[in-house]
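Example record for the data management plan.
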Amino acid sequence: MTIPAILRPLPLLMLLAGCAVGPDYVRPDASVPEQFREQTMAGKNWQSARPADDLARGSWWQAFGDAELDAHLARVDLGNQNIRLAEAQYRAALAQSASARAGLFPTVKADASGSRGQSGSTKTTTNSYAADLTASWELDLWGRVRRASEAAQASAQASAGDLESARLSARALFAQNYFALRIADQQLKLYTQTVAAYQKALELTRNRLASGVATRADVAQAETQLASAKAQVVELELSRTQLEHALAIQLGRAPADFTLAPTNALATPPAIPEVLPAELLQRRPDIAAAERRVAAANAEIGVAQAAWYPTLSLAASGGYHSSSFADWFSLPNRIWSLGPELAATLFDGGARSAAKAQAQANWEATVASYRQAVLSAFGEVEDDLAALRQLDQEERLQREALAGARESLAIVTNQYRAGTATYLSVVQSQVTALASERSVIELQGRRLAASVALIKASGGGWQQK
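Corresponding structural encoding:
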């Protein structure tokens, strides 16, 4: 078969289609320390935050040993609307990537039509039947289509990171709210016991007033203490109810359809390894998403640069045109055409230069965002490690203070019964003991919240299963 003269340059041009203008992607460096200030990293080698968000994280929440938390977190993915939003955005990104990749292949269209008309001069009625098959294909000489596909694919990968970030954030927030509710349970238990103790103290004071060994001021102080404790119970019940509502919404349920029974049990923060391996932060999906947005922006520079070069398209069409339906598809009625089209922009008023400058600036912005994400990750881990270390120390000291406050309250109460201490001393001891009790419970809650935060900051915990 003889190749038409117009098509003879095409093999050479198709060979040129193997090149792509614009910079090839190189992962940007990120300035990071060799080790945590709060804890030495194994290996002391951070590999430029190379995304490894596909590594298994495991069910990190099981480290807290709370079966009810495990059961609810297993359902967060099903009902949480933020996760569903991220899933839909990820599917949209995948579809966009597939659409961009479709530009690498020819487009084929088919068309069939029939019409009947009359000429104004001859008054002759004629029929027209047509069936056409057309194909067009842009020869990607300069890599514009490939760079666009590369950008869309990287954007889809970034969207996958956003989805994992949404999952990690939703699970961590649920766990923190769950533990906050359990801390409210502990505080309600404390204040319920306190109300009972203050009620007995009030009865004792009233009896002593009746016996003439106490004053009306003592009774008023006891009544004030009791009323204040009851008010705190109401406040804690409100806080617990609001936390319960928040948990319901995070599960994708209406608050009226969700309840969480009180319990006296409280989870224990999981032990932190003496050394956290460096690759943990590489599992952070937000870092992976930021790095892949850099890759997408890099590819967009190639797309903008390719606009400076001409585009070459190959079009082909064939079909049958006839005025008679009976011999529509006969050989004499066959038509065909084949040929390339070369198009180039000669003047655009600087639009292409502006587009390339914009693409370059967008790339620089994504690099800055990526490096900031890496630095923020290190900062979050440092903060959470410091918080856990210092909160553990603070809780031990507060428990010592609580032991002293309890002993002091018992001594002063006995002295008051014996008539050797005033009721004001009892009130002061009660306030100190209650504050110490509540501080210990609050510190337990802060340790649990910091543990969840460290798990989130390290990309989903340090479990490797």
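Summary line stored alongside the record: The longest strand covers residues 125-139.
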